[in-house]
Amino acid sequence: MEIEDASYENSLLSKGRPLTLAQKSQRLYTQWRTAEMVAAVLSMVGVATSTVDYELGFAEDRTYSNCAENINEIYRWLTLVFTLLSMVFLVMRHQTKREWYKCRPNPFPKESEQEPQEHRKRIKKERKLLSLGLVLELLGLCIFPYPYMHANISVRQEFRTNDVDGRSHYVHVCYRLAEFFYVLMFLRLGFLLRSLFNLTIYQNDHARVYCTRNGTKANVRFSVRCMIKTHPLRLILGFIVPSFLLFGIFLRVFERPYTDISGLDFESYLNSVWCCAVTMATIGYGDLYPGTHFGRIVAILCALWGAFTFSMVVFTLESSLQLNISQNKAFKAIHRSRSAALVVVEAFRLHLLKKKYGDSSLGVSKQKQVLERAIKYYKSTKKSLKIHRNRREQEMQASKHYFKKVSNQMKRIETKLDKLLM
Fold it and tell me: Residue 255: how many CB atoms within 10 A of its CB?
């Protein structure tokens, strides 16, 4: 659809006809998203070149006290080039976004005089080119292993806490400064996630107009919430599986120089991913565990992130197994009708037995007991369904109160974040 709109706009330009405000807005919106995606891709290409530089630069004779490396500056220069290109497209992205806000159609066409004051202030801030968000994003892109960066960092690390003398022994683990910059480079994943979420239907020009009219902001948080509502399990698993790989990279970087003391094979990337997976799942087999300070920090982050994501999986599965309103009505009708029909059938059998054998026969007395059990089952079913309904209503009221409280807290947090990022 966007391609057809672009071809239509080009035909208007070739004929010398001026574009309408809506067409110009759509054109700038497409350029904005394109520049954002190109900047994100170039930044991730820089991460890929830094990964190659790290793998090729890690020397085989490196130990905990020896930061030996294979020097090859070509990949760092490539990282610098891709980062600069990413910065250029990022500035273009903010410039195009600023122009788009200038020519954007008014979401309150019939009541412009009643346009919310908060909306006007927000638009005024977003029209600024050099915003705080752009400065922070450019500073984030400046974090990468620079060419000729060969400084080392020595970290004091205890390697034995229960010595025969009762004293702790310490070593100084040697890290390269470029390794810390390499780990921090993965903050660029935020650019890629933002560009991917902005491609959804909850971020286009049409969605932004309706979000503004309803007093909300069409940002990445809004897209994530909408995706969780429509495709919860798919989105959560999409966060969990890459987390194994990402935390595995971090753990391997910090534990790899320490393997000659710990004796654990963190040279293998798969072992690092396995350690992060069992930590996120809160299993902890103990076959692999971090020994350095930074490796333990990664393990703590794995545990916290794993507790959050796996609890979301359980919550999503539980929600998918619960009956909806129509299914709950059918469930109650089935049990109520079966128990009632059972009473009618047993009562009819008792009537036939009385008519055939009389009131004092053995079959009639047994059938009376069967009928009493059927009536008791009917009453218990009716009572359980009533309790189930009351409990469901109480849970709904408690959930509404809880979600209202959480929503108010999230609104306050979002307001503070928006003020910080604007």
Answer: 28
| Whether the Cβ atoms of residue 391 and residue 374 lie closer than 8 Å to each other | no
pTM score, whole prediction:
0.72
Task: Please report how the helices 117-126 and 74-103 are oriented relative to each other, as an axis angle in degrees rounded to 10.
Answer: 140
Residues in the chain: 422
Q: CB-based burial of residue 25 (10 Å sphere; 0-12 exposed, 13-18 middle, 19+ buried)?
A: buried
Q: What share of the chain is helix, strand, coil (3-state, %, to 5)?
A: 75, 5, 20
Euclidean distance between CA atoms 149 and 49, whole angstroms: 15
Average pLDDT by stretches of 10, the chain with 422 residues: 45 55 79 92 95 92 88 93 95 87 60 48 55 88 93 83 55 92 94 87 76 77 81 83 93 92 90 93 86 92 90 76 69 75 83 80 82 82 68 61 63 61 48
Query: Tokens 């710990």 label which residue?
Result: 262
Instruction: Tell me which residue has tokens 């009533």.
Output: 386
Residues 6+ positions from 59 with CB-CB distance below 8 Å: 68, 69, 70
Cα 248 to Cα 254: distance, rounded to the nearest angstrom: 10
Query: Helices 232-255 & 269-280, crossing angle to 10 degrees?
Result: 130
Residues 28 and 103: beta-carbon distance below 8 Å: yes
